[in-house]
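**Protein fold record**
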Amino acid sequence: MSSEDAALEALAVLGDPVRRGLYRHVSGTPDEVGRDAAAEAAGISRSLAAFHLDKLVEAGLLEVSFRRLSGRSGPGAGRPAKLYRRAEGERAVSVPPRSYDTAGRLLAEVVERAGLDGELQAAARADGEAGGEASGDGTDPVEVLRARGFEPFWDAGTLRLNNCPFHALADQFPALVCGMNLAGIEGLLAGLKGGQGWTAEMDPLPRGCCVALRPADDEN
């Protein structure tokens, strides 16, 4: 099966509103999600949640692991729970087919070879600031980041980003793309009326974005 066909099949699986909701819940949660928690979030039975979660696994959209949630081991510890998390692979489709990923890779190679990191960061910062200013007064930075696909979540007093919208390029050009990403978020905070008092810094997650944010008062 071609990658285009696989992407189309994955999109077809997400056509069901229950599966779509379950996928959004699992992909937006930083930790692995069990069937009970997924069922509660979707407002459906555990058996129905299990059915749809496994369909998402078959489509390559979720991955599975097994772990005892009690933390105990040995006899009497119970069976390991089946847990779900977003699959690392990406699914992209365009009709007719386009190759934006190739263009992005080539552009990143040129910028890196030419040593234009500073110029790229300046452009990203200006773009982020313009986007922040266009968001209007009183806009919550968390909601702006969520709308841009970063999937923010609170980790104590730190706002972490569960998803990197530039994941494929960041894997190939980590310093270049992470520097661009940080500059873009700094610009966004500068442009947002509600972004004053926030700071952004490099603090990579094992699975997620390289940037973390903190409000000046350390309150969420």
